[in-house]
Amino acid sequence: MERAGKRKIFIILILLAVMSVLAVFGCGALRGQALAEVAAVSEESAAHDHNDGEWTALTADGGVLTAGKYYLADDVTLTTDLTISGEVTLCLNGHKLTGTGKSSVITVNSDANFTLCDCSTEANNVVGGVTYTTGVVTGGSGFYDGQAYSRGGGVYVAENASFTLTGGSISGNSVEYGEGGGVYISEGSTFTMSGGSIAVVKDCRRQGVGVFLIKEAEKIILEKGGGRALIHAQTRAKEFYLKQGYLDTGKADEEEGCPHTWLYKNCGQN
Fold first, then answer.
1. Backbone region of residue 7 per phi and psi (left: phi > 0; alpha: psi in -120 to 50; beta: other values)
2. What gap in Å lies between CA 222 and CA 267, rounded to an integer?
């Protein structure tokens, strides 16, 4: 258990680098000006019972969710995108949450605290030709700034708010211009990711962004007192990491139905 915890610490530190570095490029799945709060946990998303009287099934009406716990009983296509007010937890429950395509699927208001989780790992959701074994947030177009839809196609987090992602996938979202097709974190807000995934914007691949992010992540790991970076990468992307000096641990598994490989590198070594 301790070893798994250490793996998560290093992976989450890499996420921290992604948040701070994507601002330079202006494109990517995640964009944010705020420093993320990071936390290592042993479980990606704790199991819970939606029939215990504490959970409310989300309907297609969407709109404002006030303090409470909500879940998807089935796939939901919203007629009004979600706005989070207060302290809210939403469990995807293995289903697909599709936005209206007219704004961010989920907007977290200032001073609100939002947690996105998923208690299912046996789903079969297809987005953009990719099959996810988790629930998915998709179909968002971003926050409207008065001229166009920009920032946070999937989730837009306003100032002085918090967003915690423990499970599920954010994929198939976009913005007309700006940053954060998947998630945008405003200044003064925090983002904690201990599970789940955020898809990389396809148009920003093969532009050298990945190499820069890896190098910056390694710097942050050293600054935080770490010595080794561990990466859980898609097997088809293994060669990319090998070229950056990573070594194959020889351990492989699957995540969301896709073959993955564990690789490592002692930071500071080229």
1. alpha
2. 7
Question: Distance between CA atoms of 53 and 210, rounded to whole angstroms?
Answer: 45
- Classify residue 256: in a domain, yes or no: no
Whether 179 is covered by a domain: the verdict is yes
pLDDT (tens digit, 9 = 90+) per residue, 208-243? Answer: 545 655 776 777 778 777 788 888 888 888 888 898
pLDDT score, position 94 = 94
pTM to 2 decimals? 0.70
The domain in which residue 100 lies consists of 29-199
CA 132 to chain CA mean position, Å: 14
Closest C-alpha to 33, from 218, 190, 221? 190
pLDDT band, residue 4 (cuts 50/70/90) = very low
- Tokens standing for 243? 């070229």
Q: Is residue 65 part of a domain?
A: yes
* Residues 6 or more apart whose Cβ sits within 8 Å of residue 62: 78, 79, 80, 81, 82
Domain total of the chain: 1
Within-domain flag for 258? no
DSSP the chain: -HHHHHHHHHHHHHHHHHHHHHHHHT-SSEEESSPPP----S-SS----TTSSSEEE--TT-EEE-SEEEE-SS-EE-SS-EEE-SEEEEE-TT-EEE--SSS-SEEE-TT-EEEEE---S---EEETTEEESS-EEE----EE-SSSEES-SSEEE-TT-EEEE-S-EE-S---SBSS-SSEEE-TT-EEEESS-EEPPPGGGTTSSHHHHHHHHHHHHHHHTT--EEEEEEEGGGHHHHHHTT-EEEEEEEEETTEEEEEEEEETT--
Q: Are 165 and 194 in contact (CB under 8 A)?
A: yes
